[in-house]
Automatic annotation (TrEMBL):
Coiled coil: none annotated. Belongs to the bacterial solute-binding protein 1 family. It is found in: Periplasm. Its main location: periplasm. Keywords: Periplasm, Signal, Transport. GO terms for biological process: thiamine transport. One of its GO terms (molecular function) is thiamine binding. Pfam families: SBP_bac_8. GO terms for cellular component: outer membrane-bounded periplasmic space. It comes from the Bacteria. This is ABC transporter substrate-binding protein.
Amino acid sequence: MLHGRFSRRAFLAGGTAALFTPAIARRAYAARELTLGFNTSAVDAARTLLAEPFTEATGIPVTVVARRDNPVTEVKVQTGSGSYQWDVSGAISGDTYWQVRDLVEPLDPQDPAIAALPGYAREDGWVGYATVGYTMAYQTEDFPGRELNWEDLLDEAGSPGTRALRKRVNENVEIALRMSGVDPKDIYGVLATSEGWDRAFAKLDELKPVTDIWWDSDAQVLPLLGSGDLSICPNYNVDLYEVIDGGGKLSLNWDRGLMTSNGFLIPKGAPNADLARQFISFALAPERIGTFCARLSYGPTVPGAVDFVPADILPRLPTAPQNVDKIAAMDSRFWSENASQATQRFNEWLLR
């Protein structure tokens, strides 16, 4: 959790007060620029709904650039070289944060915008503003009148069609254990033993021969989902609704789905870290982050933000009343601490 590393006086002097600086101070800040890094699918929304309003309020120019979906390497390279591509990044998952937690700037625990967040969305150097859900997804027209679940991945006869799974250990191990009968709330207890890992990989052994595509980039599968050439492909709701909004005819089943959080972090030593903190505080305003999350089908964590999500968008969110009780949060710290060994085992298993 966040610890007191800033005084309230220092924060008010250099934090939210900067959002309402007089003209002279605004001109001084305008001589500096802030760069935001976001995953490609969020760049446009971040620019129009977060960056441009921040510039209008403060006079500080902001550039939004695309970064890798998992920017662990980018954070390490930037902090190691002292050459920064961005001052603050959004859409950072919790497990990414835990892998780079010693390479990020501390955030202010007394910032009212941060203090208002639920405990699970606050760490020393990361604040989670939204949740995303990993769900079963399939072509509606391929399975009329049916609701497919995880077990249907194995049922080629009853649920025919091309299948794809993400080439990453986290989601697949959790899905495999669900398919083997483990209650989602017991996943991490099972994985506390070597037998639990063996149980997961035994189920993955069954999944491998029926999986046609192992993908590591949305560009590999989203066009196929949109065209109807890929029948079954679990993925995150934000990407699936991008396909649906583009004309794809997909159905989602949230039952026993997975949920993780997205948030902001500032790489350690970023030259504009003070401006980055101001931006984070600004972005966490309920109306602002709620509108941003609605654009991308994120579930906002900021209290009151959901009030700014249109009624027709709400069912898309993992935090919607009809979805939230069906899914379970992934343990980001667990996956960070086990990332190296688990990934090595998974990659070696794929090659067998």
